[in-house]
Amino acid sequence: MSEESRKLHPSVLIIGAPGAGKGTQGKVLGTIPRFFHCACGDLFRSLDTRTELGQQFVEFSSKGELVPDELTINLWKVQVDNWIETYLYKPDIDIMVLDGIPRNVRQAKILSEYLKVHRVIHLTCPNREELARRMRKRALKENRYDDASDEVIAHRIDTYEKETRPLIEYYEGNVSEIDATKQPVEVLGDIIAEIIKLDVYRDMSKVLV
Ligand code: AMP
């Protein structure tokens, strides 16, 4: 990684089951100046499926499973360096909104070498049927084949429970629980209320650009 990207990037992590609304909220936050949305699923979906990595993504995601950690972290690092080099992402003034990465404790440990998670926003939606309903709707609207069948949807939720949920314990004491069953605009308001309380937000918002 380049010298600039070797500093610990300030970030907030949005965590939640598939269908909880991470992408919806992350996308909106990413349109606000000084925030940068980093959605790992979008990185994978933008790959050419003829490439080796693109093939791996299709293989794992179509089963509702996670792509192996090394491949995921490498893709993330390359992309972050690209964003920095092209000035899309400015780590000295932008807070990175992590959506979908880290997705397990091992990834979190590896990434701690590159970024500091100042707060975890946990979008809670305890109703599996509601999550599945949202995913089915998304599959139709966004052509997401990983959300297309009930079997894959169920496996994606199980994968979340088994691999991603332990992150909440890993980041214990640094997690804000937010009810993701509210209207999207209310969820957004709740997330913003948490972020603006952070020291890192206050410090970075003092920098004039
Ligand atoms: P998402 O759009 O975040 O739901 O991600 C879609 C799919 O991409 C997941 O089901 C995984 O197969 C893969 N994926 C996204 N992020 C990660 C990650 N951090 N680690 C491993 N696999 C991932």
Characterise the protein shown here:
The chain is α/β, with parallel strands linked by helices and 209 residues long. It has one domain (4-205): P-loop containing nucleotide triphosphate hydrolases (Rossmann fold, 3-Layer(aba) Sandwich). The protein contains 10 helices and 5 strands. It has helices at residues 22-30, 40-45, 52-61, 69-85, 105-111, 128-142, 150-164, 166-170, 184-195, 199-205; strands at 9-16, 35-39, 95-99, 115-124, 175-179. Strands 2-3-1-4-5 form a 5-stranded parallel beta sheet.
Structural class determined from secondary elements: alpha/beta
Helix content, binned percent: 40-55%
Overall pLDDT level: 93
> What top-tier CATH class fits best?
Alpha Beta
Name the shape in a single word. Answer: globular
Number of domains: 1
What's the story with the biggest beta sheet?
5 strands, parallel
Computed Rg: 17 Å
- Structure summary, number of beta strands: 5
Question: Can you summarize this structure?
Answer:
The chain has 209 residues and is an alpha/beta fold. Helix content is 49%, strand content 16%.
Topology:
Layout: E1 9-16, H1 22-30, E2 35-39, H2 40-45, H3 52-61, H4 69-85, E3 95-99, H5 105-111, E4 115-124, H6 128-142, H7 150-164, H8 166-170, E5 175-179, H9 184-195, H10 199-205
Parallel strand pairs: 1-3, 1-4, 2-3, 4-5
Helix pairs in contact: 1-9, 6-7
Comma- or semicolon-separated keywords:
single chain; globular; binds adenosine monophosphate; 209 residues; 5 strands; Rossmann fold; alpha/beta
